[in-house]
Amino acid sequence: MSNGGTQNRAVGTGSALLVTLIFVALFACMAVALAVASESNLAISRNRLDVGQAHNLVETGLCLVQRESASLNVSGSDAAAVHASLADHFRFAWADTGMLDAYGIVSDASGVTFPAVSVLGPDGRTGTVTVSMTADGGVQDSPTITVTANGQFAGATRTAYYDFHVRSGYRILSDYGLASQAPISLTGASKVDGANNDNEASLFSCSESDTYGIDMGGTSEITGHAAVSGENVGINKSGNATIGGDEITDAPDHDWPVPDPTHFEQYVESTYDGDGDEQDATFSNIRIPAGTNPTFSNVNLYGLVYIESPNTVTFNGNANICGIVVCEEPTVENFDNNKLTFNGNLTASGVEYLPDDPRYDGIRKETGTFLLAPGFFAKFSGNSSMVNGYIAAGKLEFTGGASGTVRGGVLNLSDTSLTLAGGAHLTIDKENADQQPAGFTRRYSLICVSGSYRE
Residue 397: which region, alpha, beta or left (left: phi > 0; alpha: psi -120 to 50)? Predict the structure, then answer.
């Protein structure tokens, strides 16, 4: 009997030990599993952190280039030349930043390459970002310029892209119907409106006057915005003058196109040798010598009218001008000795309407400008149905019944006021206007392409 009881106790003790060992093994497995899971989660978290840091580096690279590229002027007839222009700009802009070796920015036909920039992470580890830029053509091809940023942090890498387009022209031409480097004055019943929308009739003055950059009185009216730049320069309205858009003071100044009258001398075919009083005559690609001071009445002028300085030239009656009027810029500004007066009815057709004659083949390409007269006073007192191109002169005055539609806009190039008085009425038509009008320096700038970010 005693032997049987001992055997049962041995069996029970062995079963308990077995169960204990099983639980110990299970707990050990669970501990190992928890340790492995913790290590995996830690690795995943570290990888996510590294990916996030790499992404931040990419964003930093793109933002640095984007900030520096806003409205950046570029040049180049092909992609390689565009790349060289971009590299020159960034070498100069980042020369003293200490961010990278600016002289290590290099370019070739394939693109612009920037030296890698190292950035210390929050945990003491270092990441890098490298940037490159690639254009797919020259500026006249309206190319796309793609910025590529590669970010690397620990073992994580990320790449993102952003695009810029090359925009031709000057903002001052696209944003404003009348722009002046002096105060703008509107009196009487003068009016400026837009042919297609109200904003075409916006005004801008970058006068340094300490009073008013835009001064409006009587019942004068503009349908667009009024903007002035310069410290303490204001906008004044008196009487019943109205401004349809916003009134903007302390506006940023703009790059101005630089006139180049000498470019047109190549189109001169003949020199005017008349007695100074011309009626019912026709001229083509003509030069008017200095000191001639002619008066043209009921004339037809085709192609180029090149006026030397000094000169006072008057257009009376019905003047039909199909082409461009260009004035030689005076060495010394004197509006008494350099003056153009447009009386009567003016018909001003663009070069695209010149007769189909080989003599006009060259100038027919010079679109977008009707009058280019730096250093001359241009006064308009008659009617015109349509002026097919920009009107630009040192000093401008529209008075009496001067009225008509101007395709493009009006530029006052000197520090003497642009004036509209009496019943002068200008309608600005920017639809299909040339953003690179003939006779001015050409400009190409970068603009961001909204929504072009991609990874």
Answer: beta
Going by DSSP bridges, is the β-strand pair 425-429/191-194 parallel, antiparallel, or unpaired?
A: parallel
Closest CA to 199 of 226, 170, 172: 226
Burial class, 129, CB count within 10 angstroms (exposed 0-12 / middle 13-18 / buried 19+)? buried
At residue 50, the pLDDT reads 78
What is the C-alpha separation between 251 and 234, in angstroms, rounded? 11
Whether the CB-CB separation of 342 and 320 falls below 8 Å is answered with no
User: Is this prediction's pTM over 0.90?
Assistant: no
User: Cα dist. 86→57, 112, 443 in Å?
Assistant: 22, 7, 14
Residue 301: its H or E element: strand 300-307
Neighbours of 369 (CB within 10 A): 26
Using pLDDT thresholds of 50, 70 and 90, give the confidence band for residue 310.
Answer: very high
Separation of CA 82 from chain center: 17
Task: Report CA 59 to chain centroid distance, whole Å.
Answer: 25
> 94 or 22, which is more confident?
94
Chain segment 189-199, per-residue pLDDT in tens? 999 999 999 99
Q: For 128-192, give the DSSP string.
A: EEEEEEEESS-GGG--EEEEEEEEEETTEEEEEEEEEEEEES-HHHHH-SEEESS-EEE-TT-EE
Kindly give the pairing relationship between strand 226-228 and strand 247-248.
parallel
AA letter at 407? R
Residue 20 has pLDDT above 70, yes or no: no
